[in-house]
Structure formats: C-alpha cells, structure tokens
C-alpha cells in the first residue's frame, strides 16, 4: 500500500474515534489512561522491530521538561475530547476540536515570533464565524439528551491543549516525531494514572466484554498502529499533501456519526463546519509552504 493510501487509512481510523468512545463503558479519564498505556507499550515494542529505539539517556533536561509538559497536555487533551463526545454529538465535538490550528495561529506571533498576515486574520475570523454557525441558537436541539454548550466547551478545551502540544513540540530538539510521540504517550499515561486513581473507583469486575474488546482495539489500532503508520507515511509525503489529506479525519468523523449514530447536521451547521475546516486548511497549507521555502 502506498504512502498516500496508508495516510488516508490512518485518517479514517482517527475519524472513527468518537464511535468507539461512545460505546466503551468507562469514564473519559479511564479510556484516555488505557489508550495511553496500551498505545505506548505497543509503540515501544514496535521501536525494537523498526530499530528506532528511544535512548532516554540522550534526552536533555530541557527536552525532558518540554516532554513532560506536552505529555501531560496530551493526556488531558484526550480526556476533554472524550468528554466532548459524551456531552454533544461527534460532529460538534470534532469541529470544536479542529479549532486547535486556529489557537496555534493566534499564539504563534507571541510564542514563535511569526508575523501577522492578512490571510491569518481572515482565517481566524472565518473560523469563529463557522463556530458561531455550528453552536448558534436554533442550530442544535437543546431538548435532546445532550448538553451541547458543555460538550462544545470541552471540545474547545481539548483543542487548546492540543494546540499547546503543537507549540511545545516546536521547541523540542534532536528527537524524531516518532521518538517524541513515544515519550509523550508514556508521560501522558504516568501523569493520568494518579489522576484516575483519585477521581475514579477503578473497579472493573463488572465491565462488559464489548468494552474490553473496544478498549483493546482503541489502544492497539487507534493509537499504536495508527501512529506507527502515520509517521512512516509522513516521511514519504509532501507537507501540502499531508495538510490536505488530514481533513479526511474530521470529514469522515461527521460521515460516520451520520451513518452509524444518526447524528446529522443542519445546513447551517454544515456551512459553519466548512468555514472552520476551510480556514484551518488554508492556514496550514500556507504554513507548510513557508517551511518548504
């Protein structure tokens, strides 16, 4: 299978995250903990086969500090995203989560000393207009089983944490993306473990077989295998191709939610979603062009 086809498969796997979370009978923090634990063990094992082991002794104190910060942010980013899936529909949670690139755009001039441009300003404005169209009064049914404002709020919190991971990663030196991810997953698991102990009963005697199977698939396929394929295919693709194909993830999430959960969007919400994804796509393509130049 070619690099482009592999990357598309990975995006489709990521697009099905919400379907799994909604059907696992565990709290969001427990799902995040098991995802991190299973995924990190899988990737550490895989690193021996692909001969890309992480030598912790070679990691500087500066990098370790950044990895701890980004790993913790990654763990709680998952928790907030999974909470978003529980409080609102998958389309609403996904579109809120895809505000992460917009947060990066807003913060980049302050943290990365990047210049403001007209294109960036327009992208940010269109993204916020899109978010308003998704959540504006009348766009969602507030009488149903969901609490959409809370769910979208969790989605935006998750986006903010993911944006912080993106920004922190730009300061990490001498580590490949694969090595960084293994460290972040491991640290996320270590950080989340005491949090889960303090906030959850962690009694799994009554957990059903379906949840056990789904959490195993979630950790191995959606984290371990998906990340492994993601980084292997990225090496063979151009930055602009990656930026465009990445939007298969949110689009497939919306399609899967409509097909399997009947979570449909109104025409106004679809327009809002298009504005959010379109604005982030334009900003990311522009960023990739500058880096390639």
Low-confidence sequence ranges: 289-293
Query: Strand-and-helix sequence, N→C?
Result: HHHHHHHHHHHHH
Mean pLDDT across all amino acids: 86
Give a count of the beta strands, DSSP E runs of length 2 or more. 0
Rg calc: 19 Å
Give the helix level as a range of percent: over 70%
Overall SS class: mainly alpha
Separation, N- and C-terminal Cα atoms:
30 Å
Shape: globular
Number of helices: 13
Main sheet makeup? none
The fraction of residues assigned to DSSP E strands is under 5%
Descriptive overview:
With 293 residues, the protein is mostly helical. It has 13 helices and no strands. Helix 3 packs across helix 10, helix 4 packs antiparallel against helix 8 and helix 11 packs antiparallel against helix 13. The longest helix is centred in the N-terminal third of the chain and has 27 residues. The C terminus is likely disordered.
Please render the helix and strand layout as text.
Layout: H1 3-15, H2 17-21, H3 28-49, H4 61-87, H5 90-97, H6 100-111, H7 118-135, H8 148-169, H9 177-199, H10 209-234, H11 239-245, H12 248-261, H13 267-292
Helix pairs in contact: 1-10, 1-12, 3-4, 3-9, 3-10, 4-8, 4-9, 5-8, 5-12, 6-8, 7-13, 11-13
